[in-house]
Amino acid sequence: MNLKFKHLGLLACALCWAGLSLSAKVEKTCVYMFGFSASFTDSVAYVTDIQQLDSAYIDTKTDFLMDRVVYSDQLQTYLEAVNQARNAMCTVFYHTKKNKLQEEYEKIRKRYSSDEGMILKVLTDGGFKFRSPVYEPPAKPVYVDETPKATKKGKRKKAAADKEKK
After folding, report:
1. Are 74 and 131 in contact (CB under 8 A)?
2. How far is CA 124 from each of CA 17, 110, 129, 142, rounded to the nearest angstrom?
3. What are the DSSP E strand ranges found in the chain?
4. Span 128-134, average pLDDT
5. How distant is the alpha carbon of residue 68 from its chain centre?
6. CA–CA separation, 10 vs 131, rounded Å?
7. Beta strands 119-123 and 44-48: pairing type?
8. Is the model's pLDDT at 27 over the cut of 60?
9. Which uninterrupted H or E stretch holds 16?
10. What is the per-residue pLDDT for 92?
11. Which residues are CB-neighbours of 103 under 8 A, at least 6 positions away?
12. 160 vs 107: CA distance, rounded Å
């Protein structure tokens, strides 16, 4: 019987440890990124140079860049303001290691440089820079059908307040 409790205790400890290790954290880290923009109505595509961001937030469990939409919106806003590139689809590529991102960068440049129907323009350092937004963790969702339950103490206070009003 005593051996059974030891096994159950070890199993419980292992499950707790596994649960803690699976929980994702968002960490501020250094990443390298470049942006790419293309439009279905235009033959010009844009690519930024590889930039280093010191304060980007990454989900440690999935290596997922938080606020990716903000970075692509920065590129789209810049292109609309400076180059009159409207309705462009913008995306960002990122990695924590520069050499891995460099390989992806070369693939994109090679693919669009070899296409005779496309013109690839590189946005250099002086023109466009990504800016790290202030990361705010998502709030816990509140559902409409969830109403807070009244406690006994709260009910007594409300009843006392109702008596005083009368």
Report:
1. yes
2. 47, 17, 9, 44
3. 26-38, 44-48, 51-59, 64-65, 89-95, 119-123
4. 83
5. 5
6. 47
7. parallel
8. yes
9. helix 2-22
10. 94
11. none
12. 73
Q: Please state the length of the chain.
A: 166
Alpha helices in 43-151 (DSSP H): 68-82, 98-114
Residue 104 has pLDDT above 90, yes or no: yes
Q: Give the separation between CA 65 and CA 92, rounded to whole angstroms.
A: 10
**Is there a contact between 120 and 45 (Cβ–Cβ < 8 Å)?**
yes
Q: Which residue has the higher pLDDT, 86 or 8?
A: 86
SS3 state of residue 159? helix
Tell me which residue has tokens 């789209």.
Answer: 76
Q: Sign of the CA dihedral 22, 25, 29, 31?
A: positive
Backbone angles phi, psi at 91, to 5 degrees: -145, 160
What's the mean pLDDT in 104-120? 89
pTM of the model: 0.66
d(Cα 19, Cα 104) in Å, to the nearest integer? 34
CA distance 113 to 153: 72
